[in-house]
Amino acid sequence: MLRRTTRLLWVLTFLFAVKALADNDTKVLPGHPERGIQTFTAKNCAKCHSIWGVGGTLGPDLPEAIRGRDFYQIIGLLWNHSPRMLSRMAQEGIQTQEIKRDEMKHLIAFLYYLDFFDPPGNYERGETLFRSKSCVRCHSLGKNESKVGPSLDKFGLMISPVFLGTDLWNHWPGMTVVFKIKQLKRPIFDKTDLADILAYIRGESIDETENRKYLEPGNPDKGKTIFEAKKCNQCHAVFGKGGDRAPDLGIAQLSKNTTEIIGILWNHLDKMEKMYQELGIRLPKFEPQEMADLLTYLYFIGFYDENGDIARGQVIYQEKGCMTCHSAPGEEGKLAPDLANAGLDFESFDFAARIWNHTQKMGVVFEESLIAWPMFRDDEMRDLIFYLKSQSETKKTE
Question: Choosing a second label site near 42 at 20 to 30 A (CA), which of 93, 284, 303, 394?
Answer without folding.
Answer: 303
